Amino acid sequence: MQPSLHFFTPKHQSLLQTQSQLFTCKFIVNPAKKTVPRNPLPLLSPPAPSRSSPHPEVVEPMVQRERSNVLVPQHPNYPVHLNRFQKLAAVALDKIETSVIMRLEKNHVLPKMVDPAVQISGNFAPVEECPVHHGLEVVGRIPACLRGVYVRNGANPMFAPSGGHHLFDGDGMIHAVGLGLGNNASYSCRYTRTSRLVQEARFGRCMFPKPIGELHGHLGLARLGLYMARAGLGLVDGSHGMGVANAGLGYFNGRLLAMSEDDLPYHVKITGDADLETIGRFNFNDQIDCPLIAHPKLDPVTGDLHTLNYNVLKKPYLKYFRFDKFGRKSRDLRVDIDQATMIHDFAITENFVVIPDHQMVFKLSEMIRGGSPVVYNKNKTSRFGVLQQNDVVGSGIQWINVRNCFCFHLWNAWEEISDTGDKIIVVIGSCMNPPDSIFNESKDTFRSELSEIRMNLRTRQSTQRVIVPGMNLEAGQVNGQYLGQKTRFVYLAIADPWPKCSGIAKVDLQTGKVTKFMYGTWRYGGEPFFVPEKKQTCNRNGNEDEGYIMGFVRDEKKEMSEMVIVQGSSMEQVAAISLPSRVPYGFHGTFISQEELRRQVI
């Protein structure tokens, strides 16, 4: 019989192959200033064997290195599979990089948004992999309904950047906390073994361009040319994807998927010992061959998964996909937009898909002019596209202008009927100003205010109001059992004072009342994740907030990390789990129940 903390585990799946693109966007929270590591980051040795099987599964380390505190880049290691010509070419290209490109880059002062000394410092500095640690100290009681694994994604660069680096450029690392019977808890963290990371580990250095940190101006074009030369000589291979899988996490049809919109998702297995193991890129059983955004939407009623693909190079710039609860893709739907646009998130209702088309766009030609390919187009009017889920060609999409609106994240949407009988689409999101705040420095005060947008499908008119003025609220969610339906509560990180996240806000969307849970002095966290206490059908009996909120917290003064569990109804802490190593601030997470883990697919 298996111990209570252990779960049913699947076998390996072969690595899946597809194409990828270079540009990606995710959400940044909390850059701080401290020492930035300049040496490649070693991975720990394999974890201890699982107690759940006589034939333990071992997650092998990607590279074996001695620990070093020297803050300088390590000399490259040329893989043994290269022939003599390739090795000579590799040496020559490395010389061009170090003697020409890097020397020219040193003559330019890096903006804070791409300065490694800012972007990967303090508690944003990367950490090593950590094998499973059991028997963690727990203060309070872990609720009985929380039996499973909480996982959270984040950017954790394995190798020191040679040029600019944005937080979004880091390699994906997942942190996992297993919750079992008897107040037992475990912790581990593992890199997602992306094709990009595996190849760079062979060389012992960065080999692929960093889409946001490096691809700026003429030197960005030089970096791109360097990559193309390496790829042309067979030193690196981008045909298996170049994504970092560091942003979103979702559990669909028996698979945990690690996502970033520069690639296909990666399938990651949660082992019987609550460890993590990368299975490979997942193309939904050969049904797709393009990257997907990091925020798919799972319909709690139908079990369908809705998602998008955007292309920065050619039309169609945007496509919509839907998979049924068995993982079968219904169709590819082209969404006509005039310009390659950054679409990080979207929303669903019972019958519609709501797609933002905002002012952050991609213009690769700007690199020729010496600028960034990610551009804030002030002349563009923000709008939302409302698409029927059963539309088979996309021609029925309705575009409704919503001026001065940039929502990096949307928390929910639903349908209402007005007093005059018109259908209204209600969207709840955090409106960010300036829109390019996470990519460029600005003299304007940063704001990310929770807002309600109402769009009339008959008149195509919109209204917008701030629900909680004067408070920066970002990174969060509603009770997932009500996604796409009218909700009363939303749980968000208090990104105030920006960019620190000092607590959690429970916002009553009906009254505007805010109930806060503050982490305390020198303590900061990230996205709160809500887990409902019971599975229930949608109703309005006031039990929407019956559940628990969990997330990682870092005490910067005591230099300690923990996971806190807060009751959703009272917003009071019920448990805190001390973690054996530092957990950097990161991006998005999810909770997989023990019942769901038993149904992991092979």
UniProtKB/TrEMBL annotation:
Co-factor(s): Fe(2+)
Keywords for this protein: Dioxygenase, Iron, Metal-binding, Oxidoreductase
Cofactor binding, per record: Binds 1 Fe(2+) ion per subunit.
Binding site for Fe cation: 295, 344, 409, 588
GO MF annotations, alphabetized: carotenoid dioxygenase activity; metal ion binding
A Pfam family assignment: RPE65
Family: Belongs to the carotenoid oxygenase family.
Protein name: 9-cis-epoxycarotenoid dioxygenase NCED6, chloroplastic
Source organism (scientific name): Gossypium barbadense (Sea Island cotton)
Lineage, broadest ranks: Eukaryota, Viridiplantae, Streptophyta, Embryophyta, Tracheophyta
